[in-house]
Design goal:
Radius of gyration: 21 Å
Largest sheet: 5 strands, antiparallel
Strand content: over 45%
């Protein structure tokens, strides 16, 4: 019999506009359990496992996402487009007001990012992107601190604080070298203070 009989309806989720509904379910088969995602009656799957944040399945009335595992590999479904496979995904997917998105994932012990379908990396740490595609991250190399902003590396520092990068690409942070305080604004250093 080819008809699908769904058991164990899990987590019915409706978007804020009451336009879309999702539910995650599983089907028992002779070879085991298969999991499915059902969006407005359309089935996605079968998958080995599905994981999602109930609060973030719907970003708005036209954007949805969830992660799934198939044959031991992890994937992301964003609006029906499948990204992956990945070794490890930082399951936080950020969606911007301009409908762009990004997420970070790990491959061969390095971090990579997918910004609106375009791959970036590798990075030593997961970056944070702005809606215009600019990014930054900080990292520690043998007890010495560095900051990378859009591919430009700053450091070494003993310490840094208050890192802020605006959507227009301007940035600011405070840092110290040999116990003396400085400030960096858009690549120009000020101090000592």
């Amino acid at each position: 019999d080819e008809s699908i009989i769904y058991h164990n309806k899990q987590s019915l989720i409706v978007d804020d506009s009451q336009v879309n509904s999702f539910f995650f379910t599983e089907k028992k088969t002779p070879s085991g359990t298969e999991q499915f995602a059902i969006l407005n009656g359309e089935a996605f799957g079968p998958y080995d496992n599905i994981f999602f944040s109930k609060e973030k399945v719907f970003i708005n009335d036209s954007t949805f996402n969830y992660n799934f595992i198939q044959n031991g590999e992890t994937f992301i479904n964003i609006n029906g487009e499948i990204f992956g496979p990945y070794n490890l995904i930082d399951v936080k997917i950020t969606f911007f007001n301009n409908r762009k998105f990004y997420f970070n994932y790990q491959k061969d012990f390095l971090w990579y990012s997918n910004f609106d379908g375009e791959e970036y990396g590798p990075f030593p740490e997961p970056p944070i992107f702005s809606q215009n595609g600019g990014y930054y991250y900080s990292y520690d190399r043998y007890g010495i601190n560095f900051v990378n902003i859009n591919g430009d590396e700053f450091g070494p520092f003993d310490d840094f604080t208050d890192l802020s990068v605006n959507a227009n690409g301007s940035f600011y942070y405070k840092f110290s070298k040999e116990g003396i305080a400085y400030t960096n604004i858009n690549g120009d250093e000020y101090g000592p203070f």
